[in-house]
């Protein structure tokens, strides 16, 4: 595994590159501040990677939001699905949103994280070359 630090002073963050990173519980856990995690993914990626990620998040209270797949679903309606789930499950400021998917999922989850309660933590787990 390789770790690259994006040096932005107090906003610095790591990028991890390697195999089987979803199985490395401690690696993922160190990036999460609170106890609540919301994983946003799509119907194509979920069957491939969601269970492995959920197993690594077993110490946290985790919910999953599974959206439709495709650029045509990059809409306000899809963002509303994320917000509705955040509100319904009473997520807090220390909630971490995890984007498990490609560019569409990453864009929508990042936007939701930036807007929810004036911003919550966000982790991107890219599954496509474009999202990487």
Which secondary structure elements does this structure contain, and how are they paired or packed?
Blueprint: E1 2-6, E2 13-17, H1 25-29, E3 36-42, H2 46-56, E4 61-67, H3 76-88, E5 96-101, H4 103-115, E6 121-126
Parallel strand pairs: 3-4, 3-5, 5-6
Antiparallel strand pairs: 1-2
The span between the termini is 16 Å
Class based on secondary structure composition and strand pairing: alpha/beta
Order of helices and strands: EEHEHEHEHE
Give the neighbour order of strands across the main sheet: 4-3-5-6
Shape verdict: globular
Q: Find the count of extended strands (DSSP E, 2+ residues).
A: 6
Largest sheet: 4 strands, parallel
Beta percentage is 25-35%
- Number of helical segments with 4 or more residues: 4
Overall helicity: 25-40%
Return the average pLDDT rounded to an integer: 94
Question: What is the gyration radius calculated from CA atoms?
Answer: 14 Å
Uncertain segments: none
Describe the structure.
The chain is an alpha/beta fold and 132 residues long. It has 4 helices and 6 strands, in the order ββαβαβαβαβ. The protein has helices spanning 25-29, 46-56, 76-88, 103-115, and strands at 2-6, 13-17, 36-42, 61-67, 96-101, 121-126. The strands form 2 sheets. A 4-stranded parallel beta sheet has the order 4-3-5-6, sandwiched between helices. Helix 3 (76-88) packs across helix 4 (103-115). The longest helix has 13 residues, at 76-88. The mean pLDDT is 94.
């Amino acid at each position: 595994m390789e770790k690259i630090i994006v040096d932005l002073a107090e906003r610095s963050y790591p990028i991890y590159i390697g195999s089987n990173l979803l199985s490395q519980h401690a690696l993922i856990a160190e990036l999460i501040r609170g106890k609540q995690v919301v994983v946003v993914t799509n119907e194509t990626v979920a069957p491939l990677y969601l269970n492995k990620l959920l197993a690594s998040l077993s110490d946290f209270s985790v919910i999953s939001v599974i959206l439709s797949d495709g650029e045509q679903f990059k809409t306000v309606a899809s963002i509303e699905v994320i917000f509705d789930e955040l509100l319904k499950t009473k997520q807090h400021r220390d909630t971490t949103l995890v984007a498990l998917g490609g560019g569409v999922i990453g864009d929508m989850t990042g936007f939701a994280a930036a807007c929810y309660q004036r911003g919550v933590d966000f982790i991107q787990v890219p599954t496509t070359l474009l999202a990487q």
